[in-house]
Amino acid sequence: MRIEHANEPDIPSLVALNNRYAPQGLTLARSEGFAYAHLADYRVIRDGDGSAVGCVALDEYSPSIVEIISLAVTPAAQGLGYGKRLIAAAEQLARRRGYQEVFAVSFSDELFLSCGFEHAALSHFPEKIARYATVDASEILVGEKHCFTKRISTPAGVARPA
Q1: How much of the chain exceeds pLDDT 90, in percent?
Q2: Quick one: pLDDT band at residue 146, thresholds 50, 70, 90?
Q3: Of the candidates 40, 43, 41, which has an alpha carbon nearest to the alpha carbon of residue 17?
Q4: Does residue 93 sit within a domain?
């Protein structure tokens, strides 16, 4: 298995992977337009045939804060550590881009805690609450989802791209 940048032919797979879990409230539904607009922010994990079996993306909130979104792994590939590898790839991308903090909102407490994240109050991210209101206000009411945060260091001399 290898993690790579997503590319245009991956868009239908990214949307299908992500949206597979949207009816259960585990992910927010994404469109092909969203995936295309965020293509540079996506990473995929591929099986031996080159098919995407997992994905993750970043979504910027400010020059210093980014959210890990669209974390999804096919049911057949769950339990193999791919979620951890995708989170690490997202962190690496965030670090390379110069973000100081990554956060996620998820039901997957054990996964994020095992990756070095800490619980955080969603109120620490008012931008996220405002975005929920415009995307799907019911998301803010889902009690089982928790917010996780992690401070990351950036390599010396790395400046955020303009």
Answers
A1: 62
A2: confident
A3: 43
A4: yes
**SS (HEC) of 10-63:** HHHHHHHHHHCCCCCCCCCCCCHHHHHHCHHHEEEEECCCCCEEEEEEEEECCC
Q: Residue 89 is encoded by which pair of tokens?
A: 């790839």
Tell me which residue has tokens 């994905």: 55
Question: Where in the sequence is the domain holding 141, given as residue range(s)?
Answer: 2-151
Is residue 61 within 8 A of residue 41, CB to CB? The reply is no
Q: How many CA atoms lie within 13 A of 135 on its CB side?
A: 14
Whether 159 is covered by a domain: the verdict is no
**Domain assignment of residue 161, yes or no:** no
pTM: 0.86
Say which CATH number the domain at 130 has: 3.40.630.30
- 58 vs 68: CA distance, rounded Å: 5
Tokens (6 digits) for 107: 């039901």
Tally of structural domains, the chain: 1
